[in-house]
Every structure is written in C-alpha cells, then in structure tokens.
Amino acid sequence: MDSLVPYLLPLIYISPCYATNSAPLFLANILDERMPLDFGKKFRDGKRILGDGKTVEGTIFGFIVGYLYFTVIYYMQMLLDIPFIYVNMLEGFLLVTGSLIGDIIGSFIKRRLNIERGDTLPIFDQTGFLIFAILLRSIFLGPISYDLVIYLFTITFLVHVLTNASAFKMGIKDKPL
Ligand code: CTP
Ligand code: MG
Description:
By secondary structure, this protein is mainly α. It contains 5 helices and no strands. The protein has one domain (5-169). The site of magnesium ion (MG) has 2 residues, from loops. Cytidine-5'-triphosphate (CTP) binds next to α1, α2 and α3.
C-alpha cells in the first residue's frame, strides 16, 4: 500500500481541477436556461467568441464545487496524519481558477479553428484545463517537477477519455469524446 502513495498523492493533489472541470456538465443537466459567458457575441471572424458550451452559471458552479472540494481536502490533510500536499488556500484558488481559464481558452481556440461546440480538439480538450491550472500555480507559487507534470498529463488524459465515454454511455454527454 505504501508503495502506491507517491502515485496517489499527485492525483489527490490535482483532483480539485477534475471537480471544477466536471461540475458544469452536471449543472447543465439540471438548469436548461443558462447565460453564455460570451453573452452570445461574435468574434471578428464572425463566429461565436466562446459558444454556448461556456456559461456564467456553469463557470460559477465549477468554481464553487472545485474550491469547496479543495477546502475539504485542505482541512483533511491538517486533521489527518498525512503528508501535506498543499502549501496554502491560495493554491486551491489558483488550481481551480486555472482550470476554468484553460477550459474557456480551449473553447476560444476551438471556435477560431471552426470546431463546433461540443466537437473535439484532441489533447487540448482533455488536458487544457490542467495546462492552465499548473501554469497559474507555477506563476504564483513556483514550478512543480517535470516528472510530476508528465505523470499528471498522462493520467488526466486517460481519466478524461474514460469519464467522457462513461458520461456518454449514461446519457449525460452527447458525444463520447
Ligand atoms: N459548461 C458550462 N460552463 C462552463 C463549462 C461547461 O455551462 N464554463 C457546461 C456546458 O453545458 C457544456 C458542458 O458543461 O456543454 C460540457 O462542457 P465542455 O465539454 O467543456 O463544453 P462543450 O459543450 O464541449 O463546448 P466547447 O466545444 O466549447 O468545449
Ligand atoms: Mg466538450
């Protein structure tokens, strides 16, 4: 069991990003009417700035769920006798905000590349949120090791593909990727 710890801790560390990224999808199944984050506006190429897949409600919900989730882990690490994985509460804010920014930038890029809302931009769709989460964290709190970054990207890519395929099977998502 002890030998698994080095592999599990990075996943726990990054899990608030997963919570942030998946929460809006569940809200989408409850709330039909949501305000697009770009307010329906178009970019100068005539296409939507972000599209209907990024909403104000979804973004706020993603932030709240992600940050609450982070807070639970943060206090658990203080209560339990486990290695500290977070430096401070700011770290959660950076990871959660970075995830949301990455996801939004992903939609911006997709619209510029003529990729319809909900269609896939391989690699970035699965890991864009992580790129920006780690970037924002590194800018304010210092870089994390390359080994860790590579491990997190590989696992995140695989987890994302698997969870999306399951969400598709369960009828929560329209497309399997
Ligand atoms: N969602 C939201 N607000 C966000 C992110 C996601 O409301 N900030 C909701 C939307 O209903 C979205 C769903 O969660 O359709 C799935 O998110 P995602 O896969 O990121 O969006 P896509 O619909 O694939 O749109 P895009 O092509 O722009 O990524
Ligand atoms: Mg999508």
